[in-house]
Write a structure and sequence with these properties.
single chain; 106 residues; mainly alpha; 6 helices; 70% helix
Length: 106
């Protein structure tokens, strides 16, 4: 039986689908709250599904850059905000600013 070496101490594993779904939901909830608008439940669920699919599609890259919130927010601006703003019928620039404030803490 071959010996297995010790596991690296600081190697981050990819999050589970459940954790990703919950994180997407929380991030969008915080952004909507900062915009101080009402989004109907159906549109919130559709937005969460859209965001979840985008994250799953880029999971390896997101996992590699999980400690760089600014870079992840830049990706969100390019990959998610346009479709989400169209779905929710809100101004894309306001949505970007609200998400960045909620996600990056600025």
């Amino acid at each position: 039986m071959p010996l297995q070496g010790p596991k690296p101490k600081h190697q981050n594993s990819l999050p589970t689908p459940r954790k990703i779904r919950r994180s997407c939901s929380k991030e969008l909830y915080r952004a909507v709250k900062r915009m101080n608008i009402y989004i109907p439940e159906e549109k919130m669920e559709a937005g969460e599904a859209l965001y979840y699919k985008k994250v799953i599609g880029n999971l390896i890259w997101i996992g590699e850059n999980q400690s760089n919130r600014k870079l992840l927010a830049d990706w969100w601006d390019e990959a998610v905000s346009g479709e989400l703003a169209e779905l929710w019928e809100v101004d894309q620039e306001k949505l970007k600013l609200a998400f960045r404030a909620a996600f990056c803490g600025s």
